[in-house]
Write a structure and sequence with these properties.
With 263 residues, the chain is mostly helical. The protein is 66% helix and 5% strand.
Length: 263
């Protein structure tokens, strides 16, 4: 049995000041004070000056608190467990906690994968609004697929939109190109460049080429005619309305020029 040195003696019982108890356990004085106020770990006694004094049994209780905290239990759950002496249900509680932790781990892994994917497709500096829109889109990709599936039975169309038919490298290349084009549109809008300018029309041409790599024009038109309910639009990436109008106007100019060429 480990012989713990330090502290005063009261009979055969060692008594520790809060500072000694903190040093002994590796818990800060402030944390012990907090646990006391919350009723989670009250010291065995207070001296005549009101100073906290801890005994060996408090060490055992603190061990349980820290172990449960390590397992991911909230302080409220720990308090309930200790006050109700739920020894018999601890194993069941641990099973539930394990499932919660597995779920949390899956959520953390998903966030890490989202950040990794965004890092891979954003190889140059972009503004925070665009970056957050990209993250939002990646985060809600599965929800987007489910919403579209309710509006069309054409799974091939949905798979093409999300580039399921492309290799991972092809998908990343197209996504990088789309982000670069969108960033250039935003820059042109900010500079007040006309939608009829050669610079902006070149961007439209690049956008059309990029979208045609994702799916044929006929299927783009089918997709454009799908109407998403207002309360479901939140799941899809948001583009500033002014930028959206700017791009639409540039596309109209481009389409008119293409039509004139074919006449």
């Amino acid at each position: 049995m480990v012989n713990i040195k330090g502290g005063d003696r009261m009979g055969d019982e060692r008594v520790y000041t809060i500072k000694e108890f903190a040093t002994l356990t590796g818990v800060t004085v402030r944390t012990l004070q907090f646990y006391d106020r919350k009723g989670l770990l009250k010291p065995s006694q207070y001296n005549e000056k009101g100073h906290r004094r801890y005994e060996s049994k408090d060490l055992y209780k603190l061990q349980k608190i820290l172990t449960l905290k390590y397992l991911g239990f909230s302080l409220e759950d720990i308090s309930t467990f200790l006050s109700e002496h739920m020894d018999s249900s601890l194993q069941n509680t641990l099973r539930v906690q394990k499932q919660l932790l597995l779920q949390k781990r899956a959520e953390i892994d998903y966030v890490i994968n989202t950040i990794t994917r965004v890092e891979e497709i954003t190889q140059e500096d972009i503004d925070s609004d665009l970056l957050l829109s990209i993250i939002h889109s990646v985060q809600h990709e599965q929800a987007q697929k489910e919403i579209l599936a309710k509006h069309t039975s054409d799974t091939h169309l949905i798979n093409q939109l999300f580039m399921e038919d492309k290799t991972e490298d092809e998908k990343k290349e197209i996504e990088r190109q789309l982000i670069k084009i969108l960033k250039s549109f935003k820059d042109s809008y900010a500079k007040g460049v006309s939608t009829n300018s050669r610079e902006v029309q070149k961007l439209v041409e690049q956008l059309v080429t990029c979208l045609n790599r994702v799916m044929p024009l006929e299927e783009q038109e089918v997709l454009a005619n799908i109407s998403i309910e207002e309360d479901m639009k939140f799941q899809f990436p948001y583009i500033d309305s002014d930028i959206e109008v700017y791009i639409q106007e540039a596309i109209k100019v481009y389409s008119a020029k293409v039509a004139d060429t074919h006449e």
